[in-house]
Amino acid sequence: GDGCGVADAVSVLVGNRLGGPTGPSDVAADVRAGLPPARDPIAAAPDTPTWHDDVPDGSGTGTLTTPWYPIPAGDPSDTVIVSATGDLRAGQEVVIEFRGGPDVVFPASGKQAGWLDRLVPLGDLGARPTEVRVVARDTLAGADTWLGVSAPRLAVAQSVPELTAGAPVFADQVSAVFWPCVDQIEMRDGLAEAPAFRLRASDGLEGAIVSNSTFPDNGGTLTPIDRSADFVELPSTLAPAGAPTLGWGHVERVVYDHPPGAYDLTVGEAPRHGWTRLPTLVGPAYTGRIYIG
Fold it and tell me: If we measure between CA atoms, which residue out of 240, 67, 79 comes closest to residue 158?
């Protein structure tokens, strides 16, 4: 049939088109520039500047006003992204300010163990603003109440078929049927093609399916990826957004420790009768564990 399934409605946000900062940041109290000690860089944008007030006992407070960043001309689908982490409960304040547009407040979302993205499509603001900055106020004192915030970045929307064109893709067993136009990985001579991207379902199912294909105890051709690559999630949106609901899904770039495919392969033939019994995949001799249903 016509169309590319869910790919027709999903946009992946890539790159950073903002101009350079027009001045220094303004910080007060415990806030300082740099990565929070307990956090890795933002996976999808590791070079993005960050600030935090994570003092040794975790009780830091303070304020941050980033410099203004110029917004170039572009498409209404261009999206400003700001990432925050740490204590994002009510009482903390992270505001994305636009020169020539309305302020956008980062919603209260509890304590975050990783970076949480706030996406602001510029087309939703009416007239295109000319600059953007972030203002943050950490007012909560007490253990483990620190706050971390990133500089804004401006991402460009790209469709999934455009992003993955010519690259092997692995879509999980729940969502694979919804991606008819991506180049799904192939099995050749008992080996799986190394995926460059992974597409995962959401809808609250992540805990049940995120590692099914790479969990070592399950076995399978994709198991080595779990120990030789990282999955970097790219911000994405589903149009039309509609009412707030569960997440639509995940688009991830697979980043390998070493370039995949660097091996020699020799393929031979071994004739045998069709009734020859081979080792079963469900027995403990193959899996190394007792069948659990």
Answer: 79
